[in-house]
């Protein structure tokens, strides 16, 4: 039988005021090969997050989406890292996200086993079959500089490794079927999905960027690239420092997004801003543009669907972030983002606005209005039409003023 340890108590508002994160120790003896943790509380009255750190550091995070997790040498619950169970004191991390005034009672049980197979996260689902060529929309050809081409993608998606419903393979296949060339998989506060990305990318013919959404009550940030796990408990400037040192890019996600709007102070400024997110529910509003220009007009605007599950968010590619790349791998996409060769459209097959030297080019936008920093400038009359470009952002708008495409 597994060896069990238990913690019981009540989290109060005083605990939350002291810190957003609290730690419950679990002793893992030498020779252990499985750890199972379960957190029980009244989920109708409070929201508690769940994670884990071993003696050498991070081993996983699942937020409030899971009540339990299992870690073994060979497998782990999505969101957690498989591998040797180091002997010593482990810490179960409990994030106090929301409490009632009276606090909440909790029960935590940790089981440790030295018998292989006694504790298991369960079998992984088989990946879906490769996407038939007939089910993949044809690539869209946009005017590009010599040696480069525009790739269509999405920089903000989630899987079962946090609070999404699709596996990495299911998400990759779904995005490829929507005609996307690349996708950043940005599960909350974890990198457990990164190991699955290369195989899924090859199987479904789509570039998958490693990423994570650094998630706190004060704001969310998208860390793009193989930056290693970023400690969300540290100040936001440390997130920026780590992504820069490790060759990645940081984005402020959904800066105007209801209760998860960006409210964190920073000395520096991330190079990217997710100006276009599904929470821009009325594209006639210019509040996201106003925030971007007030925060850092030099930041590169990007888009993200924040895909989790059908019926809750926009699907992958709504909006579509286009990046002009000299290759089709993750590094080529990151290089294009870093250089600012980026434009955003409401959808993959809709109007697009490209920046080319001192001009802007409207593609498939007949009837739309070209607007610059000073307001409307011209009517688009042809499928591909060039206009003089001035400094600052430009966008295409329909007759109601709703944004159809955006470029800096």
Description of the structure:
The chain has 408 residues and is mostly beta strands. Helices cover 13% and strands 38% of the residues. The strands form four sheets. A 13-stranded mixed sheet has the order 15-14-13-12-11-10-9-16-17-24-23-20-21, with helices on both faces. Strands 1-8-3-6 form a four-stranded antiparallel sheet. The protein is globular, with a radius of gyration of 23 Å.
Mean model confidence by pLDDT:
97
| Widest β-sheet, arrangement of strands | 15-14-13-12-11-10-9-16-17-24-23-20-21
Task: Estimate the helix proportion, in percent.
Answer: 10-25%
Q: What is the alpha-carbon Rg in Å? A: 23 Å
CATH class of the largest domain: Alpha Beta
The largest sheet is: 13 strands, mixed
Q: Determine the CATH superfamily of the largest domain.
A: Metal-dependent hydrolases
Number of helices: 6
The beta-strand count equals 24
> According to CATH, what is the topology of the largest domain?
TIM Barrel
* Residue runs with pLDDT of under 50 for 5 or more positions: none
Distance between the termini: 61 Å
- Order of SSEs: EHEEEEEEEEHEHEEHEEHEEHEEEEEEEE
Structural class: mainly beta
Q: If classified by CATH, what would the architecture of the largest domain be?
A: Alpha-Beta Barrel
What is this structure's SSE topology?
Layout: E1 3-11, H1 13-18, E2 21-28, E3 34-41, E4 47-54, E5 57-63, E6 68-72, E7 88-98, E8 104-113, E9 149-157, H2 168-177, E10 182-185, H3 197-204, E11 207-216, E12 219-224, H4 236-245, E13 249-252, E14 272-277, H5 287-296, E15 300-304, E16 320-325, H6 330-339, E17 342-345, E18 352-356, E19 359-363, E20 369-372, E21 375-379, E22 384-388, E23 394-397, E24 403-407
Parallel strand pairs: 9-10, 10-11, 13-14, 14-15
Antiparallel strand pairs: 1-8, 2-7, 3-6, 3-8, 4-5, 4-7, 9-16, 11-12, 12-13, 16-17, 17-24, 18-19, 19-22, 20-21, 20-23, 23-24
């Amino acid at each position: 039988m597994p060896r069990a340890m238990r913690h019981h108590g009540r989290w109060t508002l005083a605990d939350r005021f002291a810190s957003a994160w609290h730690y419950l120790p679990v002793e893992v003896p030498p020779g252990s090969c499985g750890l199972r943790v379960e957190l029980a509380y009244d989920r109708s009255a409070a929201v508690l997050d769940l994670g884990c750190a071993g003696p050498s550091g991070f081993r996983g995070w699942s937020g409030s989406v899971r009540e339990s997790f299992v870690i073994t040498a060979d497998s782990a619950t999505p969101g957690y890292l498989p591998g040797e169970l180091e002997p010593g004191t482990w810490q179960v991390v409990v994030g106090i996200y929301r409490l009632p005034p009276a606090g909440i009672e909790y029960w935590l049980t940790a089981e440790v086993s030295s018998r292989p197979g006694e504790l298991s996260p369960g079998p992984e689902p088989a990946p879906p079959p490769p996407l038939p060529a007939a089910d993949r929309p044809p690539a869209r050809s946009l005017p590009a500089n010599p040696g480069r081409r525009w790739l269509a993608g999405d920089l903000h998606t989630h899987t079962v490794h946090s609070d999404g419903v699709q596996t990495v393979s299911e998400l990759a296949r779904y995005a490829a079927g929507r005609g996307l060339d690349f996708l950043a998989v940005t599960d909350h506060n974890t990198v457990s999905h990164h190991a699955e990305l290369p195989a899924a990318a090859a199987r479904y013919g789509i570039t998958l960027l490693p990423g994570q959404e650094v998630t706190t009550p004060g704001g969310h940030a998208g860390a793009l690239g193989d930056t290693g796990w970023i400690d969300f408990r540290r100040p936001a400037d440390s997130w920026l420092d780590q992504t820069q040192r490790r060759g990645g890019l940081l984005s402020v996600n959904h800066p105007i997004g209801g209760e998860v709007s960006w409210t964190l102070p920073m000395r520096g400024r991330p190079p990217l801003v997710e100006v276009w997110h599904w929470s821009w529910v009325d594209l006639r509003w210019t509040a996201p543009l106003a925030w971007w220009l007030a925060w850092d007009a030099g930041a590169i605007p990007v888009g993200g669907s924040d895909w989790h599950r059908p019926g809750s968010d926009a699907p992958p590619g709504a909006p579509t972030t286009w990046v002009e790349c000299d290759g089709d791998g993750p590094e080529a996409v990151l290089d294009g983002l870093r250089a600012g060769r980026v434009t955003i459209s409401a959808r993959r097959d809709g109007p697009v606005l490209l920046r080319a030297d001192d001009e802007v080019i409207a593609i498939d936008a007949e009837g739309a209005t070209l607007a610059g920093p000073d307001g409307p400038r011209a009517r688009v009359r042809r499928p591909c039409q060039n206009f003089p470009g001035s400094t600052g952002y430009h966008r295409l708008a329909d007759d109601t003023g709703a944004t159809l495409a955006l470029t800096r």
